[in-house]
Amino acid sequence: MLYTLRSQWLGNLRGDLLAGIVVALALIPEAIAFSVIAGVDPKVGLYASFCISVVIAFAGARVGMISAATGAMALLMVTLVRDHGLEYLLAATLLTGVIQIGAGFLKLGSLMRFVSRSVVTGFVNALAILIFMAQLPELNPATAGVTWHVYALTAAGLGIIYLFPYLTRAVPSPLVTIVVLTGVALLLDLNVRTVGDMGDLPDTLPVFLWPEVPLNLETLLIILPYSLSLAVVGLLESLMTATIVDDLTDTSSDKNRECKGQGLANIGAGLLGGMAGCAMIGQSVINVKSGGRTRLSTLSAGVFLLLMVVFLGDWVAQIPMAALVAVMIMVAVGTFSWDSLRKMKEHPPSSTIVMVATVAVVVFTHNLAYGVFVGVLLAALFFANKVAQYKYFYTTLSADGRTRTYRIVGQVFFASADKFTEFFDFKEVVDKVVIDLCDAHFWDITAVAALDKVVLKFRREGTEVELIGLNEASATIVDRFAVHDKPDAIDQLMDH
Amino acid sequence: MSQVIACIDATPVSGSVCDHAAWAARRLEAPLTLLHVLDKRQYPEQQDLSGNIGLGSRESLLDELTQLDEQRGRVALQQGRATLEEARKRVTASGTEAPRLLQRHGDLVETLSEMQPDTRLLVMGKHDENLGEHIGSRLETVVRTLHRPILVCTPEFKSPQRILLAYDGSPTTHKGIDMVAGSPLFQGLECHVVMVADDTKANRGQLEWARHTLETAEFTVTTELLTGQVERALCDYRQERDIDLIVMGAYGHSVVRRFLVGSTTTCVLRNAQVPVLLLR
After folding, report:
1. Separation in Å, CA of B50 to nearest CA in chain A
2. Which domain holds residue A266?
3. Band of the pLDDT at A135, cuts 50, 70, 90?
4. B158-279 falls under which CATH superfamily?
5. Which of residues 3-22 of A touch B (CB under 8 A)?
6. Is A84 contained in some domain?
7. Best mutation site among A131, A289, A337 for testing chain B: the one with the most B CBs within 10 Å?
8. Could you give the angle at which helices B14-28 and B57-93 cross, rounded to 10 degrees?
9. CA-nearest residue of chain A to B58?
């Protein structure tokens, strides 16, 4: 226990506290921006970010990962907030937490193995595009208060973010951007939209409150679809981020425990007046880059965030939205997987199609869950198609021309059953047909039905049919024979 | 449950760990494994507080971190190998049969618990800096995690002649007496069984049982019933009688109690000038 305390909390004090501050500074603009996306007061996102960071620091499994209010989740809430109001959002957040904890206990975290790399890349890219697109209203000349000043400020902000690190790496450049742009806007008395225009900021520490919604079936039916989407997207992004942090820090983490932790964090957020959130790819990368490695950096990020916002609230309200837009563009750019574009040529077209389809569906529906669903489905289809091609047929005619032998090698299942049937020549007149199945695997009843059909057809032509190795071949319908439970299953499948 | 495992690192105490492990391996007639664990978490993390991310940040960060680990890892690996090689020379010179050298990546505690089923005796060095008051004692975590005898060595090696068995009548120390009696490790050594408790008939009886058990196993036994503070009494007795090795049960109490009251085990470990064999 003491050892755990040391390795997971206190092992890297200085690095973690500094990283915590850097992350908190980057979390503030994001939490405000995502609140704006969801259509709620900035305090909802800020309370959520505080609460989620603090709870996940204790309950999460992936040490060093940052969770807070996120864009992926905010996008799913838009219609709920618009049609039903904030209280329903809080209720949906609670339910999301409950669903995620359930998923953790059902060990659904391990389902992540069905999400292929191309889908993950598509998810990440789609997320980046969504975050970027969410900034566009702030840059749209039709929005009130958007003048050329906004463009100038945003451009200056991006300049500072990317050029300031060449000067020094000891101060976070997003912070410099925010301070400088706020100062400039105040000095020149520019009439641009500020954070204060977006709604209430926190003026107190968060308080416990139960969402004021009628506790009935109607409420449940309203929030359930949202909660399901939120739970799925939250877990997907969290588990993907966990994998990324696993890779970065060369350690491993318990994915099912992470599901439960995310659920607890969301319940906490819902009870303290915050919106649902999940792990953040961009912030976690910033955390690791800043030297954060233990739970302490996650915890301190949340605590610093709240302290800064509550005590510097008046200043935070003066931050021009253009500064936030610049920071968010940085997050979008940093989240996007540049490698995926560069490697498009090297990867097989099917993986590119899966990736692009995931992105397209997300950008179209604004729901990452749909994108992942389509991506996983496509990837599965491509895989089935690929496996179906591993199939060879040999055929020989006996010397006397009376017996035809067919030998089938490969996988026979729903995707390859038609090809299997087509291969036989029913018009040929022979006395006997031998079908050698010793090197074939029959994976499902579609395959068995196809074989039945072939045998029947030959018999109708008056041809005698002999099957060799049928039992071994059909042993691969593992569901029924359950050979996969036995240790020598692989040998049985591969040898016969 | 067959081999003696010695934890070797680059600190000066490792030499004595080798000697103790070699001595134990010879007496137990068990194979000796010299273990060196490469724990990446002990390297300092690099920091870049610029807080910005750009195109390809994730990929380049992964590259950077991998390179850093690779360089450090290679150096650590080389150092570890050299340390192990030196340890092997030392062990072989003492006339013990050639030890197995083993290097593992990962966490010391995890590595040791993986090897536990095949461990008969674990030999570790006493690093003073790791024996803090409360938090941070890696040794304590090892002792609490593993359920095998652990010999904690001081920086000097002296072939033990007289051993002290700290006894309190509890089931753990009861088992300890049985273990000492049944093991070839201390065969033929002078054995002092010391109990720090009130002078009651029950306690005398306990001591008599210990004496009987050990004498049956052909040990020369002295028993002593002392009063006073346990750690003090043990350490004083050790000094008076010039004892070379203490055998005691380890961490009988919970972590919480240890946090509030402190632990006899840690106290003895810190103050003893001789190796301590901890039995769980």
Report:
1. 4
2. 2-338
3. confident
4. HUPs (3.40.50.620)
5. 3, 5-7, 10-12, 15, 18-19, 22
6. yes
7. A289
8. 60
9. A285
A92 in any annotated domain = yes
Question: Which distant-in-sequence residues (6+ apart) come within 8 Å of B144 by Cβ?
Answer: B250, B251, B255
Distances A180 to A168, A322, A437, B49 between C-alpha atoms, Å = 16, 12, 75, 18
CA–CA dist B87, B96 (Å, integer): 12
* Crossing angle between the packed helical segments A148-167 and A321-335, to the nearest 10 degrees: 60
CA distance to partner chain B, nearest, from residue A170 (Å): 5
Is the domain defined by B3-41+75-138 classed in CATH 3.60.15.10?
A: no
For chain A, the domain total comes to: 2
Residue A27 lies in a domain: yes
ipTM of model? 0.70
The reply to whether residue B51 touches residue A293, judged by beta carbons under 8 angstroms, is no
* Cα–Cα distance for residue pair A306/A317, rounded to 1 Å: 14
The pTM of the full predicted model, rounded to 2 decimals, is 0.76
Q: Determine contact: B257 vs chain A, CB below 8 A.
A: no
Q: Is residue A59 part of a domain?
A: yes
Regarding whether A416 and A331 lie in a shared domain, the answer is no
Taking only the tens place, the pLDDT of each residue in A413-437 is 888 888 888 888 888 888 889 988 8
Residue span(s) of chain B under CATH 3.40.50.620 come to 3-41+75-138, 158-279
Give dist(CA A53, CA A66) in Å, integer: 7
Contact present, B187 and B209 (Cβ < 8 Å): no
Pairing state of beta strands A277-279 and B32-38? unpaired
